[in-house]
Write a structure and sequence with these properties.
single chain, UDP-N-acetylmuramoyl-L-alanine:D-glutamate ligase, Protein-Tyrosine Phosphatase, Chain A, 10-stranded mixed β-sheet, 16 helices
Length: 549
């Protein structure tokens, strides 16, 4: 298999997409539940690529897709034609009552104060019935095609449509797309396989740990860019300053978030590593705390360059002792020591004193944990021989990562903050920041993530939430896990209630915004936390508060 781009200079078709065609019903700014009329658009990610290239750049493009012979199909086919896209259809019959359908998507535009409402009807979709042999690829490619683009299941329809399929580690083996790819004889990689290949070909540094690795990786990127470098990066959240979690830089360096989930970090080829902390987490991949610790140690020992660990965390300190690592933190014996850490203008500032360098660091992001993460990023760069002065100065404008103390606005005097915290230590740190900054009541609104994590940590979650004035817990966001009898968000709520906290259990996530809107008041800070769809609540609550203003 070869990698890189080998684009033909000419061809009968510049660009062919393989994907589903969709008709979208859009009432505009009117909420869908109140709509009386809708505009109809034809879309689908693959078609959008072909249509825009044809319409905006005059390229010769095509779309290979399913088409149903009924009125909705005719509407879509006419729009495809109007956009100048050549169709290659596998046709399906429909008698007006029975038969496969064209996909539909319903969406409104969210008033500009909340996320758009989007939901799909892909029941009995014709595109889902496509199978190998439905398209005459030899005929389509006969005159030459310069670019070919496919998405999702369509990548596995034919042995000729893909050299490689890459799937998230969270996708189960029985997923029909992976099954189809396997049946077509296409190699299947998981995310760790892809990252292993990427890091093998470029100098790579990164951050790992139970918490803080996303922000620490982003701080590494910000520090390097402030020093005039342009590294590539892969981070587990969108960097606010660049509105992306990935970038292909011009310098021969990759900065990566070395995630321990699915044992991904074991596959990476690293030349520098930060270990922020090591606590119990992801035991579904490691089995025991001992196995988890051994994995962190093995990864640290295998790094071809400096490893820096947080001296303030017992777990990372143990990794450092066994791997011969450099230390950082507020601990007085740390090699890179944080001195005179103070709160300042909603953020923090401190002196970082290292073996041969020191720097003044000022941050606009709140929390001692963010300051410690910044020290880790600078310590690694110092250990790599870089001058940390310019890098440290660049962190003064670092605005953070999406869903990490993300301020979502203030409506009717109520401040809305959203955070990805989904482990007890993360929840505790985030609630502490809220408690320090809030002028009124703190509402900690928590959605547990994963049944296994909730069963293991429900008491610890409760303790972490208790400093809030009001605690609201909703049910578990199961993600990749199946429900477990008796494991619900009420475990967390009951545990907090036994500790004397003011707790409200609202089992359905969709009910949170109305519940809060009836109870919050000016001066309150509402903090939503969790790794699931609780991130929708701030925009939903903002809309309700605005309507009542």
């Amino acid at each position: 298999m070869k990698y890189g781009l080998d684009i033909k200079p000419t061809g009968a078709i510049d660009f062919v997409s393989l994907g589903a065609l969709v008709h979208r019903l859009d009432p505009g700014i009117i909420p869908f539940r109140k709509a009386t009329s809708c505009a109809i658009h034809v879309s689908g990610g693959e078609f959008n690529c072909a249509a825009n290239l044809a319409d905006c750049f005059g390229l010769k493009t095509g779309i290979a897709s399913a088409m149903v012979d009924y009125a909705v199909g005719e509407l879509i086919a006419e729009r495809v034609k109007a956009m100048g896209v050549v169709p290659f259809y596998k046709r399906f019959a429909h008698d007006g009552v029975r038969g496969p359908n064209m996909a539909a998507v319903y969406s409104d535009q969210g008033f500009g104060v909340r996320a758009p409402v989007v939901f799909y009807n892909r029941s009995n979709e014709a595109a889902g019935l496509l199978k190998p042999g439905d398209f005459d690829w030899k005929a389509i490619f006969a005159g030459g095609v310069r670019w070919f683009h496919s998405g999702g299941i369509f990548a596995s329809l034919s042995p000729g449509t893909a050299d490689l399929v890459v799937a998230s580690s969270a996708v189960p083996e029985q997923d029909p797309e992976l099954v189809a790819a396997g049946q077509a004889g296409i190699p299947i990689w998981r995310r760790p396989d892809l990252l292993a290949a990427l890091t093998a070909g470029i100098s790579t540094i990164g951050a790992t740990g139970t918490h803080g690795k996303t922000t620490t990786t982003a701080l590494l990127v910000a520090a390097l860019r402030a020093a005039g470098e342009d590294p590539s990066f892969i981070v587990g959240g969108d960097l606010v300053d660049w509105n992306t979690n990935g970038h292909h830089g011009t310098d021969p360096m990759l900065v990566i978030e070395a995630d321990e989930a699915f044992r991904t970090f074991e596959r990476l080829d690293l030349e520098g590593l930060i270990v922020t902390n090591v606590e119990t987490e992801h035991l579904e991949h490691f089995g025991t705390d001992i196995d988890l610790m051994e994995a962190f140690v093995d990864v640290a020992v295998g790094v071809h360059g400096p490893v820096v660990v947080c001296a303030d965390d017992p777990g990372s300190r143990q990794v450092g002792q066994r791997a011969g690592a450099v230390t950082y933190g507020v601990d007085r014996d740390a090699d890179w020591r944080i001195v005179d850490l103070t709160r300042h203008d909603g953020g923090s500032r401190f002196e970082l004193v290292g073996p041969s360098q020191r720097a003044h660091v000022s941050l606009i992001r709140p929390g001692a944990h963010v300051a410690i993460n910044a020290a880790g990023a600078l310590a690694l760069l110092g250990a790599l021989g870089r001058d940390i002065g310019q890098a440290a100065a660049g962190l003064a404008s670092f605005r953070g990562v999406g869903r990490r103390w993300e301020q979502r606005g203030t409506v009717s005097g109520v401040t809305l903050v959203d955070d990805y915290a989904h482990h007890p230590t993360e929840v505790s740190a985030t609630v502490t920041v809220a408690r320090d900054l809030a002028e009124g009541r703190v509402w900690a609104v928590f959605q547990p993530h994963l049944y296994s994590r909730t069963a293991h940590f429900h008491d610890e979650f409760a303790a972490a939430l208790c400093p809030a004035d009001q605690i609201v817990v909703t049910d578990v966001y199961g993600s990749r896990e199946e429900p477990v009898p008796g494991v619900t968000g009420e475990l967390v709520a009951d545990s907090a209630r036994r500790r004397g906290a003011s707790v409200h259990y609202v089992p359905h996530r969709a009910d949170l915004a109305p519940y809060l809107a009836d109870r919050v008041s000016a001066g309150d800070l509402v903090l939503t936390m969790g790794a699931g769809d609780i991130t929708l609540v701030p925009t939903e609550l903002a809309m309700l508060l605005a309507e009542r203003a």
